[in-house]
Fold these 4 entries.
Entry 1:
Amino acid sequence: MSASKTTRQIVIDGLWKENPIFRQILGICSTLAVTNVVLNTAVMCASLTLVTAMSCMTVSLLREWTPRNIRMMVQTLIIAFYVIIVDLILKAYWPEMSRNLGPFVGLIITNCIIMGRCEAFAGSNPPVSSFTDGFFNGLGYSFVLLAISVVRELFGMGTILGFAMPYFSNPEYWDKWVIMVMPPGAFFALASIIWLLRSIKPKEAK
Amino acid sequence: MNGIGSEIWLGLVTCFAAVFTQNILLTTFLGMCPFTSVSREVKTAAGLGGAVIFVMTFTTMLNWLAYEYVLVPLELEFFRFILFIIIIAAFVQFVEMVIDRYSPKLYQSLGIFLPLITVNCAILGASLFMVIREYSFIVTIGWGFGAGVGWFLAIIAMAGIRTRLNESRVPEGLRGPGITLIIAGMMALAFIGFTGVLG
């Protein structure tokens, strides 16, 4: 990975070519569990994108002064620092959401994407492009998860963001697929989306 | 029932639930990364699974003590993310050194998995769940052990299925992670079937 990557390339790579989810299958751990409702997913994805972008920037700023052999620990602490900020903000201003997300906000720390981006990109690139890289990787991650949550909430409860949808909320036409809001539904939805997105450009996949 | 007796019973129930109905991998998706990447062979999967059981049981206990006796009195609860991570990393490092020193054979089979575990979301997740659900110490032991065993079972089963899968024809875009996820979904369905077995 060279330092001369243009912003355009960073954006495309983050959103599509090296998309964290369907290309690399990274970091689904901490977020998949909250994809049963669109609102929770949106908050979670926003937090994750923010934390990724900010940590990448910080790691990049400190890269000259970080000794190589303890860089993992330094990165973890930087990430944990931003996660604590997000957690406290949520607790203070949106306690209800903080309760819904439970331990998953804290689990952003161990999300492999953030560490992956810090290692692969931010460690050897200037702060601004690291920020962009982190941000667009976060977005690339978010759009797949949002797609999953829309499918799950729509099929499972007939609503999107809590609003009843015309066809799906009518019991006469649509039997709610309860399985979709239960954990197995997330596996099936994610697998289908990976299948779909990978089939779009199968030749460039590898 | 007296206090300790009911605590132990609660711990056993929690342990059972953590293995089956609340399986940390299949219901909360924690530890998916190693689950999809290390589940190609039964033997390596068993090694990683064993290491997870061990580390998870002890780190939840250590973290419980640290949380209850250090963070709560100091009112620094928000600091738990960092403290837990440090404890886990230190514990893993310590275990690695001990095993390396006293049992080179075990080190060879388990050693390579230990560093992987520090970044395993399931380990941190188990500790965070323990705090949120306000488990007592005895229940925490049951929970940590049960969650580890649940993870072990899931990855072993997946590795077994995947070795069979090598001979089957899977659609192009679904190969690798895609089909793994679908199988995991079916396993999750099976595990949910245990709901209601034990109170």
Entry 2:
Amino acid sequence: MFVWFHKLASPPFFYRFAEKLAPWLGWLSLLVILAGLYGGLWLSPPDYQQGDGFRIIYVHVPSAWISMFAYMLMATAAAIGLIWRIKLAHAVSAAAAPLGASFTFLALVTGSLWGKPMWGTYWVWDARLTSELILLFLYLGYIALNHAFEDRRTGDRASAILAIVGAVNVPIIHFSVNWWNTLHQGPTVFFGPKAEMPPSMYIPLFIMMFGFMLFFAAFMLKRLQVEVLQRERNTVWVRELVEQS
Amino acid sequence: MRLTALIERDLRLAYRRRGELATPVIFFVIVTALFPLALNPDPALLRTLAPGVIWVAALLAVLIGQDSLFKTDYEDGSLELMLLSPITLEWIVILRVFTHWLVTGLPLVILSLLMALLLDYPTHALGTLVMSLFLGTPILSCLGAVGASLTVGLRRGFMLLPILVLPLTVPVLIFGAAAAGRAAVGDPVAAPLYFLGAMLILAITLAPFAIAAGLRISLES
Amino acid sequence: MIDSMEQSDVLSVDNLSVWRGERCLCRNLSFRVSTGEALQVQGQNGAGKTTLIRVLTGLGRADEGDVRWRGESLRRNSEQYRASLSYLGHSNGVKLGLSPRENLAIASALLANPIANKVDVILDKVGLSTHADLPCGMLSMGQRRRTALARLLLADVRLWFLDEPLASLDIAGVTLLTDMLKAHLTSGGIVVFATHQSMDLAPFPVKSIMLGTSA
């Protein structure tokens, strides 16, 4: 098993692996998301306070969760790439960044859309949304730094440091934003998985989370394939691959 | 003894370039002065805004100052000599950040008293304002130095630096401005100041490793 | 510790491969340099001479292969190695806002075992005694280069890595450098230098590497 993991770090082996696995994950994620949406939009009852508006949590909460997860994945892969000098780890970081940023953006947009019917404004400086916004900035900084270097490897390693520093900071940022929010008594009505929820609500929520994870995995594999091709474009195996198709 | 020689060299160089190092300080004053011009100069309004305005201006001024941290040394080749020295790079780096803060950050702390005057910030709270900046500006210098170490080799690195560093400085801004704001209305300030102190210790212990790693990576090509 | 004339004072390079972006600068490069030997790295502009020298100092990174000094690999990033070398790069490493004397004081502070109280002697040897206290910004390019050369004499290190050492030097400067190199080799030192001009270091053998010829 360990040997297989080791082989996975080799770009050509990984490329073939991803080529086979990605479609399965992709279709499965579509099925799961559809199931979750059915459960969330049809089966579960409207919230007694918020009516049907709350249903956006079925997209908002999984997006927010994935955005956090993707950042941690990015930082961990960056650390692995730096310490053990595995090129594929840096590719994972580089692939996760735009994807994570997109999910962060989605979380912000869905949060904003939720705000309009609730409080009449498209933006509230609630702790969660503010943290997501800062997370988006962290992602953008990483992407900007990664692309600023002529030599891709230097860019990978520099942005790896940034990702690790960011990851250490993220808990501190969350804590400080929460504290700031309690200071000014901002609205904190976005309920997350921790709030009291009947099974008819949280089961579709978990299904959606699972579906989003699968989607993320499928998309990551595809993106990684592209990253690997770009990084290895001067090697023999890539040339052979291009000639075959 | 050698470490004091390094400090001495940085201070001597700073003195020779004192015109250049005045930039962050002047920037701080100008930015603070912009707010009353952009808003209502009504003293009551300024008083409520003062902690936030002074803190944001200080934050931006410290960032402006980061460009001079490693850039000249990178361009004339002295940075390479620091990396090749048998002295542990992390030590050289933390001393450099310290002397840089003495020359660019500490003046801001002192000048904040003047800025407080301009914005009608209550005098009884000045001690807390100064304390918050005194604890906070070194943290900002450390974070700025991390960004500077990663961007020193880039041609437009100076423009990228704020984008990388500003999100990381949000906790410092929150606690610092909160301390200054609460002091102005008489609320207890122990909590935010303690958090600043804790972050300062964390920054001083961890930042040198990130900065040194960043410098090594930047100088690879 | 730096003993004199240690038999194991060998810089050995094994199967070194260095890429810069898309280009391969060297592949499977191997060589050895020992006490009293000089190695000249030759090649056209852009062939990778500077990059190779920087990899040997530890500033740059090799993609494959290993560099060893006294049997210990460079990947360990040891303080020992950095204490055994002096580097003169393209840029002088000289602060223009400081005088030659002040620059040497700084360089001294960064060394492991600087020779005490030798700054005046060194400045005299490189011909900068009269200008020792002027800011380097007011000196000519050649004089700044001499300040950088003076740095090499601050401590007794085994390895000298020089990248285009002759740049900006006049004829007297070239003679000065040649004398310095010969003195260093006589005392058991090693010199690795990159230049396309040939240098006469007789009676010391000068090995040569040409970059950019193999695929």
Entry 3:
Amino acid sequence: MNPLSLIRPDRQADRVVPPSGHTAWLTSFTAGAMAFLAVFAMALSLAAGRLADRWSDALERTATVRLSAPEDQMDLQTKAVLEILSKTPGIASASAMTDDEQRALLEPWFGPDLPVDALPLPRLIEVTEADSGYDSEGLRQRLAAEAPGAVLDDHTRWRRPLAVAASRLRLLGLLSIGLIGTATAAMITLAANAALAANAQVIRVLRLVGARDSYIARAFVRRFTLRALGGAAVGTALGMLGVALLPSTDTAGGFLTGLGFQGFGWIYPLILPLLAAGVAFLATRASAFRKLQELT
Amino acid sequence: MIALENVAYSYGGGELLSDISLRLAPGSFHFLTGPSGAGKSTFLKLCYGELLPTAGRITLFDREVRGLTRDDIALTRRRIGVVHQDCQFLDHLPLAANVALPLTVAGKPSGAQDLTDLLTWVGLGNLADARPPQLSGGERQRAALARAIIMGPDVILADEPTGNLDWEMSLRLLTLLVELNRMGKTVLIATHDLNLIRQAKSQIAARVLRITKRKIQLAGADL
């Protein structure tokens, strides 16, 4: 059965199957509700993907050298570390943070009046990686030899769990879409089976007068596919509206507010009604041919 | 057209029909009679591929029925018009659409004038827009006959077509079937109405078959 044949209206074929209220409603509602949920699962998945990329990009290209040294040697060792970094291939730039910058970094935890001068804080040196990357192990050994108080933190221990968490979140989103699709298929199969069973007499009459299975199946498949398409279109529209109405990053900030679609991302949910129609087509078709074998 | 060779049919462990051989020649007119439960309806179902024989061989239009796919059987049924006693229709469609149903499923156009002529021929010209539940038993039988012949089938099988009809209506239906036979159609009617058979034999050369003890016998002489 050619799916494109579903687009061509066939009033005669449509008429042979009587309209059946509750299965029509169930199919449209199921497709609509599932599409609505799928929009949010898709938004979650896309947001998790963006987050993973953002975290990776930000952390992957930077490193920090933490230098602990007696106060009288701090400047000397800082100079030595910067010297080493400037000569290390793969490092684009390195700069020691000023007291003001360190104060700003600690301000969220200790408040604005932190006496940075009075505390034995380590000196932080921010390192930006070049595209080619650098040999972190070699750098560690050189720092240990020439500036024993310097420790290189390439953010691996931060980056890895964040990347893992974000990719799992993305996977959960995709898994949710898969589960939603499977549940949709199951519900539509049940509705189609109910419709076929309720129309057993119609099917027997059609077979008696020489209707092929494909003709009978097409009448049911076309009806269920179009119902799923319509229901999913409404569900998707409502879901997209819901996502659009989420608070923006500007007003609240944080991860949850990044759940919306961005740019071309708004096109992705438009695939959902077509996916729902495809699922309904396959589910109803399989169900119809199986049921036809049982009934006649 | 339809040929049975040593056909048997078992149902629920017991044999209902046994060792039946018969050939329905083109243009022939047969009655099939026998007591209730003898297997008349089963025999007809074997003749249009609704049931498959448990033994023996059935040939429909020179093709062995066991070798037919479901699509083949559907196509074969377009050449066999079937009328049941409890004829079923699509109740949500008007009578005209029900009668034209074989053309609809075959993707053939149903000429409005031809359809009107056919309905008029079976005496239902004024009921084209009626729904099947509104029809009387006789009207349903005639509508079923119209539906059975609209595709111009080669064979017409009727299972107790006059079972729910009064004598006058039975004769009217019989007259239609005789007319069809005179047009060259092969007709097989399963009935236990011996008066109907006698009436038909006064109009046409009909063979009478009787199912007795699971077998078919020629039973014309005693009628």
Entry 4:
Amino acid sequence: MRLEATGNLKKLISGYYSDLKKYADSGKPIAWVNVGIPCEIFYAMDIFPFYVENYGAMLGARKEAVKYSKFAETDGVSKHTCSYLRSTYGSLLSKEGPIGKLPEPTILVETSNSCVTVLSWWRLIEKATNAPCFLFDSPMVEYESSGNHLAYQVSETKRMIRFLEEKTGKRFDLNRLKEVVKISNEGKRLWRETMELRTNHPSPLTGADLFTHMFPMVALRGTEQYLEHLRMLYKETKERIKRKEFPVAKEKHRFLWDNLPIWHDLRLFEELAKKGINFVTDTYTQAWGDKFMGEVSLDDPIKGLAYYTGGGFLNVHIKKRLAVLLDIIKLYDVDGVVFHADRSCKSYSLIQVQLADQLRQNGIPSIIIEADHNDTRDYNRDSIIARIETLSEMGER
Amino acid sequence: MIDNCSAILDEFRTIRKTPETYLKNIDKPIIGYFETYVPEEIIAAANMHPLRISPDNAPITIGNSKIESFACPVSINFLDQLLSGKLSFLQGVIFSRYCDSMRGVADIWQENRGKSFYHFIPYPTIATSESINFLSDELEKLTEHISDYFNTKISEEAITEAIRISNKKRLAVLKFYDLVKKGELLISSSDFFAIVSLATIMDSIEYTEKLERFIDQYEPVSNQNFGSNIKVAVSGIMLESMQFFETMDKVGLRMTVDDLMFGSRAFKGLISKEKAGLYQAIAKRYLNKVPCSVKGNLDLRIDELVNDCRESGTKGVIFYIVTFCDSEEAEYPILKKRLLEKKIPVIAIEGGYRISSTGQLLTRLEAFAEQIGERL
């Protein structure tokens, strides 16, 4: 069952890449950033934030990741390295891709709040483009950023703003940031409320739906088109409940997906839906929910954005990861957890055996499947489906 | 070498072969750490022995079932040593944010350690005045945690003394490196590795005294046989396999420079006095040291390597990549381009925490030796 909003999403994505080219053609500044970087500051300063991971996900979804990874592998980057890194860096080297040659960055901005692989990734891009690079340093936290950590994240945010001003000539205006943050907050509220509609039995959305529609949450927060899209998505999801139109009318199983999706096989969710298995929630889209990216106070938006950068989903330790899992398992009435051990995301994946053990101790059936979010080589769909079916054999609703 | 010098070298070789026997005689509580960003000075100031944990060359027993197989094999080995009880002689362990595999190990151990001492330092990746302030606060928290947990007082005087001892050790190791680099001290790759690797295993005072005596009493013997004696550098993060260095000896490759985490990168840079205090001084040194590829400012690492190669007349670089180490795997093309620009040949060898096929290694190193040997 296709969401009407998906048509708008396509326009949104094509508009984003068309804007990227417009910025390049008119000589306006473009920053290549990673997902931990708060885009609100960039939109407030009229600097285009090109989210390289999003581009990687697009290559994955179009099954073009391996084609471009091979350029990186020929350059000497090992096949074992993150497939986002390989595919996007390979696309840069090849001067080809779904939107043609990628526009050159004016600046590069990265943060360590998701993984240290990002540092290597941006270093390769830096060497290939010669663009000045800024590293927003974000040491890990137990639960959330506070005390000296929050003070450090605030100082990093201000240091980043100084870098942006210096390298692009654009001036930072706090009032403009407040306007952008206000829109961003409103969209986050709609995102949270849309996610919460999935608590309905049956859920109005499949696992694939929110993975598909997370693009504006990542790359467009604070823009009008982002808000418009989230309103549309929320309204349509709510109406599905009202009209009792559900993608998996008889949910035999309400599962949770942990980690990035397998971008090259989002149809996996459809296949499982046919068997009555619906993924009613996941931890990845929650990373843009209120647990990790909630409302930012308009009184001090820099501090608010710094707080969420420092306490990002992959910048916290296992105790918070477990607490969030237990919380959403209860909220969404989940009866089984599928941990996607993603070869290309070690910081997400390497504690999953421990988490699965702890969930089982709490009476929650869990299994681990292994794949790669972008690289189609060594992908074994049948084995994954068989393992998820084994989990479903633990009891129907 | 005169007799006394040979005796010291034999002693180093014996300790390297069976470090567990040496550690049994340490009469202080032992705190373990896994990477080079944890400041040993703070552990030593608590009158404890800071022990750098090495991969133990044994097969994995339990580690594989607790972490995904695409974690780096060194981290799986560390987890295995922790979970199997091999490290139960430690009073506790200290982690820092190093790489994506080791953060997994830290989290898993946090959930399985029982009541043993555990501390995770949230570490910056860059060196700025703000990051130095942040790390300085975090090191003070580490000190408080050790004090509270072990009910011991760590005075400023004790930290000052620990800094003095570690600096003295660093100076001795750097002098050793310098002599090897200049060709004034001829030593095989395996002995070079044995001596340097013990600096973070043995008691610092005892080690420094032995190394200083070894250097003082060393007299080169002209007829020492190092085979074809081709000078090379070894670069990477973690390479702890004696077999690897013995294979280098066999094919006549003599390590005169290293760029390894617990090689030169652990010793370059001393802690200087800072008006802002001891923690600031420690933080400044650790954040400004030659970085591993999991941190920022990596051009410094390559600059140092190129410079060391030039000064020592090194003919080639062996870059050892631990499988599944994203940081080193991505750094390799950058390092390779830079070395080739300087006309320094480089070979990448990928492997685990121990050498699974010595035959294959021998063949590759022989081929490399032949290739660069012709350039002599």
